[in-house]
Predict the 3D structure of the following.
Amino acid sequence: MTTNRPHRVRGHEPTTAMRAYVRVVETGSFSQAAEQLALPRSTISKLVTDLEAHLAIKLLNRTTRHGTASAGSSNQSR
């Protein structure tokens, strides 16, 4: 018997990782995204990193405190 289970991103539902990614892009900050989602900043960072690995594309250009959408992620949405 085979079940149709969604692919997981490192133990999380893909929607959780996508929600974290969208919030980082909207706020421009991992810290603000973490605060708004009531999760540790390290969890937000790990979710986005794991989502990038899962999709095999770099989604964010990171600095020490901020994240902006990369050119690759912009091209994927078109």
Q: What stands out?
A: Residues 52 and 58 are 6 Å apart (CA to CA). Strands lie at 60-62, 67-69. The first strand starts at residue 60 and ends at 62. The chain has a mean pLDDT of 80.
